[in-house]
């Protein structure tokens, strides 16, 4: 509290000495300066494109399936991704987030920047298309 008061007092003194005015505080209820864009899930459109799903599968098999995730439900330290159990959320956005950010304390590294976002979304579409859990 005292430290905050001292900083405010110092700012006021500096502004007074320089002839500048202290910046006005924005009202607490001010709307954000930039509107937040609405997320549009690209996976439903990708699922309608056999070429996009095939590309997602090729990338998954060569990158993810080749090293960690298995194509069958055999025991592994990496989760089987074709059942109905998602450890970090099963929505398209949650799966994309897991792929792009990785999972701390596991072998799941971030693929952000290593694989183009468009191809990461194709992987998500492939996982959804190959899921044993059809909803």
Concise account of the structure shown:
The chain has helices at residues 2-18, 43-47, 50-64, 92-101, 117-129.
What portion of the residues fall into strands of 2 or more residues? under 5%
Q: Please count the beta strands (DSSP E, at least 2 residues each).
A: 0
Q: Using only CA atoms, what is the Rg?
A: 24 Å
Q: CATH topology of the domain at 43-129, anyone? A: Cytochrome Bc1 Complex, Chain D, domain 2
Order of helices and strands: HHHHH
By DSSP (H or I, 4+ residues per run), the number of helices equals 5
Q: What's the end-to-end separation, in Å?
A: 54 Å
**Net shape:** globular
- Average pLDDT taken over every residue: 78
Helix content: 40-55%
Structural class, by secondary structure, is mainly alpha
| CATH homolog superfamily of the domain at 43-129 | Cytochrome c-like domain
């Amino acid at each position: 509290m005292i430290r905050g008061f001292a900083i405010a007092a110092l700012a006021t003194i500096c502004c007074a000495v320089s002839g500048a005015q202290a910046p006005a505080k924005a009202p607490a209820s001010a709307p954000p300066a930039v509107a937040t864009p609405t997320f549009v899930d690209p996976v439903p459109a990708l699922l309608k494109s056999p070429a996009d799903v095939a590309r997602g599968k090729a990338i998954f098999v060569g990158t993810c399936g080749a090293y960690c995730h298995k194509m069958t439900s055999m025991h592994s330290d990496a989760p089987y991704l074709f059942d109905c159990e998602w450890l970090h959320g099963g929505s398209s956005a949650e799966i994309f987030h897991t792929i792009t950010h990785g999972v701390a304390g596991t072998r799941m590294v971030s693929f952000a920047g290593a694989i183009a976002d468009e191809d990461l979304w194709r992987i998500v579409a492939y996982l959804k298309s190959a899921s044993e859990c059809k909803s």
